Amino acid sequence: MASKTWFITGTSTGFGRALTEELLARGDRVAATLRRPAAIDDLAARYDGLLWRVALDVSRPAQVRQAVDDAFAALGRIDVVVSNAGYSLVGAAEEPTDAQVERQLDTNVLGSMTLARAALPHLRSQGGGHLIQFSSVGGQAAFPFVSIYNATKWAMEGFYEALAQEVAGLGIATTLVEPGGFRTDANNRSVDAAPALPVYAGLRERLLGNFAEPVGDPARLATAVIAAAEAEQPPRRLLLGSDAYAAVHDSLTARLHEVEAQRESAPRTDHA
Questions:
Q1: Strand 29-34 and strand 89-90: pairing?
Q2: What is the C-alpha to C-alpha distance for residues 262 and 240, in angstroms, rounded to an integer?
Q3: φ, ψ dihedrals at 41, nearest 5°
Q4: Could you tell me which residues come within 8 angstroms of residue 218 by beta carbon, excluding any fewer than 6 positions away?
Q5: Catalytic residue selected from 59, 88, 112, 149
Q6: pLDDT, tens digit, for every residue of 184-194?
């Protein structure tokens, strides 16, 4: 396949780092954004000429728009824009502070929306491109004690469901990546945990302790995301991990069952 140019947020660790490494190794160009550009000095040394990087805090809309404009100005065409930066907020719905909730929304929702909105004029002007948004198994299934995080992922699922229909005739593809558990630092270094209230403490500890050991390989995820970007018809949603498939399948089946149970009652509110 012909080489592409990618714009990726959150490239210092985890999925963003794995994807950046795989792309550079195969000769693609990458515009990498992260809070501390020095974290990928090793990649810059190995792939001089292929890696463009800039400091970015995605929770700051003006920085997002500037980074996107600068990347397109420096690199010309960008084929794929990947919104990966984000983190998990752990706690029952009432446990986090308002500041913690606002930071979660600013990063996971507004940051991702701003990135897509900033990239769209550039993608339209160049005749097309591909927007890839990292969601989660938690964008289709919900889990206790990550309710705020779940809300951010469900928000992005709805945003992209509508956006895909808006840009379908403009040569712009969209993909929501829905990973299960992967062996990254997502469940330790980058987690923000709210202090547990006594009423939830025991249950929270038990439920969070029951999460299975992650089985996903970030390198294989990177390969799968690249393959999706190269597909003639990229998938609108990309489930990655056997655990993701099982959880989403169970969630959708249960929800559909609840819908079917109201087939007769729903029309009762129709105008006679």
A1: unpaired
A2: 32
A3: -55, -35
A4: 14, 15, 17, 18, 182, 183, 184
A5: 149
A6: 765 556 789 99
pLDDT in tens, 30-64: 999 999 999 999 999 999 899 999 999 999 999 99
**Which one, of 12, 14, 17, 52, lies nearest residue 35 by Cα?**
12
- Decide: 181 and 243 in contact? Cβ < 8 Å: yes
User: Catalytic residue at 190?
Assistant: no
Residues of the chain with pLDDT under 50: none
Q: How far is CA 179 from CA 19, 80, 244, in A?
A: 14, 19, 6
The pLDDT of residue 9: 98
Q: What is the CA radius of gyration of the chain?
A: 20
Distance CA 138, CA 52 (A): 31
Type of residue found at 150:
N
Q: Which two tokens stand for residue 232?
A: 């003639």
Q: Which residues contact 241 (CB under 8 A, 6 or more apart)?
A: 137, 179, 180, 181, 182, 215, 216
Among 135, 136, 147, 160, the one annotated catalytic: 135
Q: Which residues contact 179 (CB under 8 A, 6 or more apart)?
A: 15, 134, 136, 137, 216, 221, 240, 241, 244
> Which single residue is written with the structure tokens 């799968």?
224
Task: Please give the single-letter amino acid code of residue 268.
Answer: R
Among the listed residues 12, 147, 153, 200, the single catalytic one is 153
Average pLDDT of the chain? 94
Q: At what angle do helices 14-25 and 218-230 cross, to 10 degrees?
A: 60
**Residue 96 per-residue DSSP state:** S
Is the overall model pTM greater than 0.70, yes or no?
A: yes
Q: Is 93 exposed, middle or buried (0-12, 13-18, 19+ CB in 10 A)?
A: middle
Is 4 assigned a catalytic role?
no
